[in-house]
Design goal:
Rossmann fold; 214 residues; binds thymidine-5'-phosphate
């Protein structure tokens, strides 16, 4: 059986990643491709436990590189227990966030050493990488307001962090996408979910040879 494809959605807060993940998995399934949606931090039992340590509590709970290590510990669990087995079964895997989030949030945003983050990547994932990554870009104030409205005013640990940190991680995502144009595409997430999804399908079609039906 052919190995499945691995597609990731990245971006700051309130960029609409979860909606795009859901839309894409539904479109793949309608077109006869067996696909699963997953998320980070999380996507496996141990990784979901680590998620709680990361998204709740005071902003300064973790030192930035320690925080990156926790994200990679969760990611290793996610990849080994969920992503790789699914790809081997021939399923397509669509993930709400992956390793670019660690480089953007902990590296560019929180100032953890970026070479150390690259080393963590190699140690835990080797040369495994997404087949295609969408960076959904939205201005920081718009994204933070959207995220806050969605959660009924309750803010996660990351949403409570300094807007300047969010600005740095936004620039980080754009820099990552610029440096890896074969893997990454940046999309303007301010144009509405249906319009973003139309672009997503076009790009999945062009880059991964997928023919969508319906
Ligand atoms: P979510 O917004 O997709 O639910 O993700 C939870 C938070 O975790 C989000 O605010 C971004 C943050 N995060 C990192 O800081 N580093 C990472 O590597 C990942 C995967 C998420």
């Amino acid at each position: 059986m052919a190995r499945g494809r691995f597609i990731t959605f990245e971006g700051g807060e309130g960029a609409g990643k979860s909606t795009q993940v859901r839309f894409l998995v539904e479109a793949l399934m309608r077109s006869g491709i067996d696909a699963i949606a997953t998320r980070e931090p999380g996507g496996a039992p141990g990784a979901e436990l680590i998620r709680k340590l990361l998204v709740d509590g005071p902003e300064a709970r973790w030192e930035p590189l320690a925080e990156a290590v926790l994200h990679f510990a969760a990611r290793r669990e996610h990849v080994v227990r969920t992503v790789w087995p699914a790809l081997e079964r021939g399923q397509w895997v669509v993930s709400d966030r992956f390793a670019d989030s660690t480089m953007a949030y902990q590296g560019y945003g929180q100032g953890a050493d970026r070479d150390a983050i690259r080393s963590l990547y190699r140690a835990t994932l080797g040369d495994f990488a997404p087949d295609l990554t969408f960076v959904l870009d939205v201005p920081v104030p718009v994204g933070l307001a959207r995220a806050r409205a969605r959660e009924g005013g309750v803010q996660s640990r990351y949403e409570r962090m300094d807007p300047a940190m969010h600005e740095r991680l936004r620039q980080g995502f754009l820099a990552i996408a610029d440096s890896e144009p074969k893997r990454c595409v940046t999309l303007d997430a301010g144009i509405g979910a249906e319009a973003v999804q139309a672009q997503v399908r076009t790009l999945v079609g062009e880059r991964l040879g997928m023919n969508f039906r319906g």
